[in-house]
Amino acid sequence: MTETQDSLRDCLAPAKLNLFLHITGRRADGYHNLQSVFQLLDWGDTLHFNRRNDGRIMRTTEVEGVPAEQDLTVRAAMLLKQHTGTREGVEIDIEKRLPMGAGLGGGSSDAATTLLALNRLWKLNLTRAELQALALKLGADVPFFVFGKNGFAEGVGEALEAVQLPPRHFLVVTPQVHVPTAAIFSEKALTRDTKPCRIAVFLAQQAAQKGWPDSFGQNDMQAVVAGKYAEVAQVLGWFDNIAPARMTGSGASVFAAFASRAEAEAAQSQLHDYSVRTEANWRSAVTSSLDTHPLFAFAA
Asked: Is 16 labeled as catalytic in the residue annotation?
């Protein structure tokens, strides 16, 4: 990241993985109670911010399928401006790498990076707790990225407790399919009665089984998504011969963990060979875990 008085360049908006995702019930307001552990990654979108003196909020790059007024980065900037009454403005440039509808938190992470970056650039000095409260207005996953540490999440995902996770390397594979989260939550086949777990049990199992994600729980959405989207089922099937794998979020991305980056890259090479043989048009990335958000220091 490069910082000047009037700009913040090369700000990573990191992806996340759900190491497990349990749906423990449905609330009276229609939302679902969840339990999950969020893992930050060193891979994501890159955002650039240039301060404006005229108060305007502008997105300077096109994002396919997302009008500027609906973009979570623009909405985050507007929300922060309205909350604080600042007269500052900003130009936001987005380099998109994370596929949309993949369960990697791309839009939510972009929004959180915007809140953190503008808290710094506009010299607002809001606390992390204040930013997390604003973040929840933008979406259930946004508070986690503002929280900025790997976390055990409950509620709709906003109740967070930091957890220490062992370093990992991942192969993340995304088929060419967009999975709408709201539609999956509405599926009748989705189970909503997983027994709540305790964080201590999760951490003990992680330690006992070297921290591989398959050592605890499941993704309650995975069976429903795989049943509706053959491409997701195909990715999961490919991983059967490579390493234990799990879908993240509501899909469509599937991931496996490896002890070293070299092992993850070797698996990616096997994926390439498979894609050539079968013409499977899947995106893949080898990425490593992060302990904290790159902009963590921008809020206290």
From this structure: yes
Q: Catalytic: which of 16, 81, 96, 149?
A: 16
Q: Which helix (H) or strand (E) holds 270?
A: helix 261-278
With 90 as the cut, is the pLDDT of residue 181 above it?
A: no
Domains delineated in the chain: 2-163 (3.30.230.10), 169-289 (3.30.70.890)
Question: Percent of the chain at pLDDT above 90?
Answer: 77
Q: Are 93 and 45 in contact (CB under 8 A)?
A: no
Contact 254, 239 (CB under 8 A): yes
* Cα distance between the two ends of the chain: 19
Tell me, yes or no, if 137 is annotated catalytic.
no
Report which residue type is found at 183: A
Is residue 29 scored above 80 in pLDDT?
no
Summarize pLDDT for 100-131 with one digit per residue, the tens.
Answer: 989 999 999 999 999 999 999 999 999 999 99
64 Cβ contact list (under 8 Å, min separation 6): none
Two tokens, residue 263? 């092992």
- Supply the pTM of this predicted model: 0.94
The alpha helices in 97-193, defined as continuous H runs, are 106-121, 128-136, 142-147, 181-185
Catalytic entry in 45, 141, 149, 220? 141
